[in-house]
Specification:
Elements lengths: L1 H4 L22 H15 L2 H8 L7 H11 L3 H17 L13 H19 L5 H11 L5 H7 L7 H21 L4 H19 L3 H6 L5 H21 L7 H10 L14 H16 L7 H7 L10 H11 L4 H14 L4 H14 L3 H19 L2 H16 L8 H9 L10 H14 L5 H9 L9 H17 L22 H19 L4 H9 L1 H12 L11 H11 L5 H21 L10 H18 L4 H20 L3 H4 L7 E4 L7 H24 L8 H10 L5 H14 L6 H16 L7 E4 L10 E2 L1 H8 L5 H21 L5 H7 L2 H14 L16 H5 L6 H9 L2 H7 L8 H9 L10 H16 L13 H17 L15 H18 L9 H11 L7 H20 L7 E5 L2 E5 L1 H9 L13 H14 L6 H15 L1 H25 L6 H18 L10 H13 L4 H10 L5 H20 L7 H17 L18 H6 L2 H5 L1 H5 L8 H6 L3 H18 L15 H16 L12 H10 L1 H11 L1 H13 L1
Parallel strand pairs: 1-2
Antiparallel strand pairs: 2-3, 4-5
Helix pairs in contact: 3-5, 3-6, 5-6, 5-7, 9-10, 9-12, 9-13, 10-12, 12-13, 16-18, 17-19, 18-20, 19-20, 22-24, 23-24, 25-27, 26-27, 30-31, 30-33, 31-34, 33-36, 34-36, 36-38, 37-40, 38-40, 38-42, 44-46, 46-47, 46-48, 46-49, 51-53, 52-53, 53-55, 54-55, 55-57, 56-58, 57-58, 63-64, 63-65, 65-66, ...
Protein name: Fanconi anemia group A protein
Pfam family, one: FANCA_arcN
Length: 1399
């Protein structure tokens, strides 16, 4: 025996064990004899079993002998002794109170006893049934420990067993949380009990059939689990009253709902049955709350406000089901049980928050409920749908659509459920009416502002409900009059303070005013119909004192418009002005004021919540735990912004987000919050990436960003901060920052549906409102490629973003990738990578092997050029480039290239030249149009380049280059010149060419634009035409003229150019009757060059110049004006090209100039030529170059008597100069000298009795002077009435009687003058240094006095043709109209006067 155990086999008394001595027995036989003697004296088998352990086998005969002596079976005796030993062990605790767990000494003794019991079982001398009966009689709490080794099947009365087990389990949970050392052991014990309870309490039918003898056991196990669940749920409603340890004990019990606890120990069906049963019990627990209570209180049952015990329980239960199964369980319970609405709605919130796919499932459930409700007119389904929709909406738009959006989608259109019949309509409104007494104000506002669709014949039903809802709002002290003009009804807050809503309304109204320059209709209506809100809230929010800017801004213009419309009381406006002045004075005295201090406590709490979120991600916690913490962060974020000022509350939740890219401004408190969130995201990304690649990280980061997007008042600060980091600080960011921001942008784009459009301000004056940009277009603005630094940053950022995206969504289909990825990022890479890498310009022979992009990006020695090239070679990336949405078109490539600052480019001039050659000739020119190319069409390529150059010059952006808007990129323009030259060479081979492709491109851009529709359009058109002229001058001169075959003869066709000049180019000439020198010279040089292709070049030139007399006279007038500069250029070119005498028409122009100069200087006769207006043009231009006016007057007298047309033409040119002196003073034309010269010409005409008023007839029958009017710019023609009435000192009474048409002309011009003044367009501005009033008003008063004085002296024949003007004249000037009416109908006028006397 000694060899077996080496321990003393005797059962010594308790006090004798303290002394240890060596065995003095020489052999095993001696030792056995001693034992027998000891047993004979003590006969204590209890101590014997406790001490022997595994070395007792030789004592079996003694146990049998004692059993025989007592007359009981050996198995019964051993079981009895074991029970006695267990009782002694349990009672030996030193603790004054009984605890379920044994101490260390008790565990050691029990372990020794259990070893003996094991041996007894092996030798078949232990009665299990007797042992169980004796143990139950003990009812010691520590007996729970025996369940673990023996899986006992007790057979007591069920209530006693349940009570006994539950009290022990509760005590076990309490001890586990009180002593951290016992936590692990208690967990093991609890898991064993849980497994046993499930194995027995939720058996499958087959197992139950095999174990019918234990039918009480399932009931007991089932009852214990139910009792413990009740123990937990009782604490849910008393969370605030319970102490922390009590809640922790109940939370410890929730470990039994961990699916991983059971593994393969429990049948999957049993586990599902247990979790399903538990969910039903939770949802139906203590159903005391009424529906009315749920309507009123459900806001307090959101995820973050629900007791953590309940949300933890839900999250553990949902692990056993898919989201669809969870919602099906919820739906089944709602349909078959009476429920606890608090638990049901908390369940809805938990599902919505913790499962990303729950949103669509809830939408389907709501649709199903509404269908059933209207199908059976079932109120229960209706109330269920409304409560679920509202509860899900409480979790924010990142989780579920706002309630207002759901209500509109469900009932706001003609196809809604309630429109199927009148009964359905009445059912809906009866239901809504029943809710009214319990409804919070926010939902009533939704129903009023977005009412259900109602056919006009049933309108009374809707009006009755609205009246009822307004009554309820009055009861709630919420006046409908205080509702905002643009109130956001999707807010989770029950009510928004009127101050904050008014600030939001002001911001929205300003945006509308900025776009339309008109007071919004909603503001006008509010000032009349909602006077209380308008005067009490809107105006105070609008007229908040501030330091007024030196240059009036939009707010000042809006206030001024309201003041002029009498929408602001005078006393309120005076108070505002005084307060603004006082604020400016205080600012000057005190300097810049410190920002308002904000409470740091909420921000610190947010920081702690974000830190806890990071811990969960680092520890790779379950997804539902991370999502739950994200919900906590969301709730904290809402509380942080609640501490912001009223200005923050006024954030435009649905209006565009305004970002000033030039200098984005953020409040200090907002920036700190945004920085916390961005830092948290980057840290979470790095922490998650340490363990897993992005594709194995789950949706947590996506949902974190989506949560941020749900806080609309955060978005302006968030996008503004991203603008600061990416646009302004991008090149200075390190790789980790870039990687984090790139991933953030990817997830932000993933949630783009939650982000409004962005209104970008570039910090420069804008004649038209800024365009609203989508989120992808906003990224395009931030990721500029202009300088070496910005190129490098953009490549790094886009490479990181696209690489992260392709790894994160690697399991997505190609279609899903295309839907999620922002095209801007891919297009930037298409532009940059080939630009910087020669290798990328080649053709990939085969699909590149997929490399671990994410690993390379996170490598410390990251080389972004290598990484971008690696990405470029990815087969999946190349697949993306085949999609139209991701292809960088030729136009987009040009826009990017035109933005580059050549002097700061990352490429040298030669490298840039090579890149341009490859991109245009090797890539885009041969590429098909479907992929953004030109199909090999040179005309198409030229058209794209021209349009893009013009679009780029018209764009409003910050830019870093000092290049003028009319300056052209020399590199790109050089390529355009090459293409045009090549195209010109090809066209010479064509025999029949009918269209001028270049001018057709330019005219196509102007075709759909309406000139004069608005100031912005006028400025755009003027800028556009200046650019057109700049492009035409920059291209080869011969491109203006088409050389074509007419029969066997080669002719020059200028028809398209003439049409373009007459319709467009003449309107950007400041002299009114002549084009600028550059385009004039360019045309004549092109004419000479193009004539080289004609066999009779001189004849071809003569034909073109002769055609100009009728088709485009402004060309000849321009030649007259610029001939001193033009003549040497043309003569030199003619000599160089032909070497023969000038063509006849060119020689005639030179002779006209010489004759005009000689006539003025030497007194020689001036021989007029046909047509006379050409001679007049040369004479007028010669006069402009002569200084002494006296000689000019004498020269007029020396003109022959047959020079009437020449004098009238001279008058026209002088009047054009008169207008130019006012509208284009930089041209150097003196107004007073032009006026004096005009009066001299008029005097000369009057002396000769010439019929000069024909010059001002706009009808086609006006004769030979129509050609002059057609040559003048539209602007000058519109201002001709101003010039006409400047000549009133030269109008004499003889003119009235001699010219019967004069009164018609004078009256027509007076009306036109009034129309110009009323419209406020095209009028010249007053002299800056002058002290007189507006010159237009002076001319109008002069014209009016003249007409009132002249009309009585006009002969009767003069009134014959003024009838069409009479109605318009009466509209603008009633006195003048009455005067004309009196003269035309003296009898009728007299009768009218007599009738007026009667009144």
């Amino acid at each position: 025996m000694a060899a077996e155990g080496g321990r003393c086999p005797g059962g010594l008394p308790e006090q004798g064990r303290a002394r240890k001595r060596r065995s003095s027995f020489g052999s095993g036989a001696e030792l056995q004899a001693a034992v027998l003697r000891l047993l004979d004296h003590h006969q204590n088998l209890n101590d014997f079993l406790l001490e022997v352990g595994s070395g007792w086998g030789w004592g079996r005969s003694q146990l049998e002998e004692q059993a025989s002596r007592l007359g009981v079976p050996t198995a019964i005796l051993s079981a009895k002794n074991v029970v006695t030993n267990i009782e002694r062990i349990c009672q030996a605790s030193a603790s004054p109170s009984t605890v379920p767990l044994l101490n260390l000494d008790q565990r050691e003794r029990l372990s020794s006893l259990l070893q003996s019991v094991k041996d007894l079982l092996e030798n078949n001398v232990f009665s299990r049934s007797f042992f169980c009966q004796e143990m139950w009689k003990m009812k010691v709490r520590e007996i729970l420990l025996c369940y673990r080794p023996f899986r006992l099947h007790l057979n007591p009365s069920a209530p006693d067993a349940v009570e006994w087990l539950c009290s022990g389990l509760c005590a076990l949970c309490e001890q586990a949380v009180e002593s951290s050392g016992d936590m692990e052991l208690a967990g093991h014990i609890l898991s064993d009990f849980a497994i046993m309870f499930l194995q027995n309490g939720f058996q499958q039918n087959l197992e139950l059939g095999k174990k019918m003898e234990f039918k009480k056991v399932p009931n007991i196990c089932h009852a214990v689990l139910q009792r413990m669940l009740t123990w937990v749920l009782d604490a849910v409603g008393k969370e605030k009253q319970e102490d922390v340890s009590t809640l922790q004990a109940r939370r410890f019990w929730l470990n039994v709902f961990s699916v991983s606890l059971y593994n393969s120990a429990v049948h999957p069906d049993s586990l599902q049955q247990f979790f399903r049963h538990t969910l039903i019990e939770v949802l139906t627990y203590n159903p005391l709350l009424k529906v009315s209570d749920a309507i009123h209180m459900q806001k307090e049952w959101s995820f973050t406000r629900t007791c953590s015990l309940l949300t933890t329980l839900y999250r553990k239960l949902f692990v056993a089901f898919s989201p669809k199964e969870s919602i099906c369980q919820l739906q089944q319970v709602l349909e078959t049980h009476e429920v606890n609405w608090q638990h049901v709605l908390s369940c809805v919130s938990t599902l919505a928050v913790c499962h990303a796919e729950a949103e669509q499932l809830f939408k389907d459930l709501l649709s199903h409920l509404l269908t059933k409700a209207f199908g059976n007119y079932d109120v229960e389904n209706m109330i269920t749908a409304f409560l679920i929709a509202r509860q899900a909406a409480l979790e924010g738009p990142a989780v579920f659509m706002p309630y207002s959006k759901w209500f509109k989608a469900s009932f706001g259109n003609a196809g809604s459920h309630h429109t199927s019949s009148k009964k359905a309509l009445v059912f809906l409104f009866e239901f809504l009416s029943e809710l009214v007494p319990f409804e919070p104000a926010q939902y009533l506002k939704v129903h009023i502002m977005y009412p259900p669709f109602v056919p006009s014949k049933h309108r009374s039903v809707l009006l009755e409900y609205i009246a009822l809802a307004k009554t309820r709002l009055d009861d709630l002290k919420v006046a409908i009059e205080d509702m905002g003009l643009y109130e956001d009804l999707s807010s989770r807050d029950e009510s928004v303070q009127p101050q904050g809503q008014a600030l939001h309304d002001v911001e929205k109204a300003l945006q509308i005013f900025e776009n339309t320059r008109k007071i919004p209709t909603s503001v006008i209506e509010a000032s009349i119909f909602r006077r209380r809100y308008y005067t009490s809230w809107f105006l105070p929010a609008l007229l908040r004192p501030r330091v007024l800017p030196k240059t009036p801004d939009v707010l000042m213009a809006f206030i001024d418009s309201l003041k002029r419309a009498d929408k602001i009381p005078s006393n309120l406006y005076s108070t505002y002005v005084q307060a603004c002045g006082a604020m400016k004075k205080k600012m000057l005295q005190d300097g810049s004021q410190a920002g308002t201090s904000h409470s740091k406590e909420p921000v610190e709490q947010l920081k702690a919540d974000l830190a806890e979120l990071r811990v969960l991600i680092v520890e790779q916690a379950k997804q539902e735990d991370v999502l739950a913490q994200i919900a906590v962060v969301s709730d904290r974020l809402a509380r942080v912004f609640c501490h912001s000022s009223d200005e923050s509350e006024a954030a435009a939740l649905h209006s565009p987000i305004q970002i000033d890219i030039s200098a984005p401004r953020l409040e200090a408190c907002h920036q700190s919050v945004v920085d916390l969130l961005l830092t948290s995201f980057c840290q979470n990304l790095i922490a998650a990436s340490y363990f897993n690649a992005p594709d194995r990280q789950g949706p947590c980061l996506s949902l974190f960003v989506k949560m941020m997007c749900g806080h609309r008042n955060l978005l302006p600060s968030l996008l503004g901060r991203l603008c600061q980091l990416i646009y302004h600080q991008g090149p200075s960011l390190n790789n980790a920052h870039i990687l984090g921001l790139a991933a953030f942008v990817v997830h932000l784009s993933e949630s783009r549906a939650l982000i409004p459009e962005v209104q970008v301000n570039f910090g420069i004056s804008q004649p038209v409102p800024a365009k609203l940009l989508s989120l992808a277009e906003f990224w395009n603005c931030l990721l500029e490629c202009r300088t070496e630094e910005s190129f490098a940053f953009c490549m790094r950022f886009c490479t990181a973003a696209v690489s992260y995206f392709m790894c994160k969504f690697s399991s997505c289909s190609h279609e899903d990738l295309c839907a999620l990825l922002p095209p801007t990022l891919v297009k930037k890479l298409q532009y940059i990578v080939p630009r910087l890498s020669l290798e990328a310009r080649g053709i990939l022979c085969k699909e590149a092997k997929t490399d671990p992009l994410w690993n390379s990006l996170s490598h410390p020695s990251l080389n972004y050029r290598r990484a971008s090239l690696c990405l470029w070679k990815q087969a999946r990336f190349q697949e993306l480039l085949k999609e139209k949405a991701f292809q960088l078109s030729f136009r987009e490539w040009l826009l990017l290239e035109l933005d580059v600052c050549s002097e700061k480019d990352i490429l040298s001039a030669s490298e840039r030249h090579d890149f341009h050659y490859w991109a245009i000739y090797q890539w885009y020119l041969p590429a098909p149009s479907a992929s953004g190319g030109c199909d090999g069409d040179l005309e198409k390529a030229c058209g794209i380049i021209i349009n893009t150059i013009l679009d780029s010059s018209q764009r409003l952006d910050l830019g870093t280059c000092s290049r003028s808007k009319t300056a052209l990129n020399p590199d790109i323009f050089c390529k355009l010149q090459e293409l045009v030259l090549e195209l010109g060479c090809r066209q010479r081979l064509l025999s029949d060419r009918s269209k001028h492709f270049l001018l057709e491109i330019l005219q196509e851009r102007l075709k759909d634009r309406k000139p004069g529709s608005a100031l912005g359009e006028q400025l755009w058109r003027q800028q556009e035409l200046l650019l057109h002229r700049r492009i035409l001058v920059g291209l080869p001169a011969s491109t203006l003229i088409i050389t074509c075959q007419k029969g066997k003869k080669t002719v020059l066709d200028c028809e398209d150019f003439f049409r373009f000049v007459n319709s467009e180019l003449k309107n950007v000439c400041s002299r009114g009757y002549a084009l600028s020198y550059d385009i004039t010279s360019h045309f004549f040089r092109g004419l000479l060059n193009a004539s080289l292709g004609c066999s009779k070049f001189a004849e071809a030139i003569n034909d073109v110049l002769t055609a100009c007399q009728t088709d485009c006279p402004i060309v000849l007038l321009s030649a007259a004006l610029w001939w001193p500069k033009l003549e040497p250029v043309l003569c030199s070119q003619w000599k160089r090209l032909f070497g023969v005498p000038l063509a006849e028409e060119l020689e005639r122009l030179r002779e006209l100039k010489s004759s005009a100069t000689s006539f003025l200087s030497s007194g020689l006769a001036f021989p007029p030529s046909e047509p006379p207006w050409i001679s007049a043009a040369f004479l007028h231009c010669a006069v402009q170059q002569q200084s002494p006016r006296g000689q000019d007057r004498e020269a007029l007298k020396r003109l022959g008597t047959d020079t009437q047309q020449l004098l009238v033409s001279l008058l026209f040119f002088s009047l054009m100069d008169l207008i130019s002196a006012k509208i284009a003073p930089k041209e150097g034309v003196d107004f007073q000298m032009s006026l004096e010269w005009s009066l001299e010409i008029l005097k000369c005409l009057e002396e000769r009795g010439a019929s000069w008023p024909l010059l001002f007839h706009s009808e086609k029958g006006a004769g030979q002077y129509c050609v002059l009017r057609s040559a003048a710019s539209d602007h000058h023609i519109r201002l001709l009435p101003l010039a006409f009435y400047s000549l009133t000192p030269g109008f004499h009474q003889e003119l009235l009687t001699r010219e019967q048409t004069f009164l018609y002309v004078a009256l027509d011009f007076y009306i036109q003058l009034l129309q110009l003044f009323v419209e406020g367009k095209d009028l010249p501005q007053p002299d800056q240094g002058g002290q007189s009033s507006d010159p237009t008003e002076h001319v109008i008063s002069t014209a009016r006095r003249f007409l009132l004085g002249a009309i009585p002296h006009c002969p009767a024949e003069s009134f014959g043709n003024i009838q069409p003007l009479l109605a318009t004249c009466e509209e603008f000037d009633q006195e003048l109209g009455a005067t004309l009416l009196h003269i035309l109908r003296p009898t009728a006028a007299m009768e009218l006067d007599e009738e007026l006397v009667l009144f």
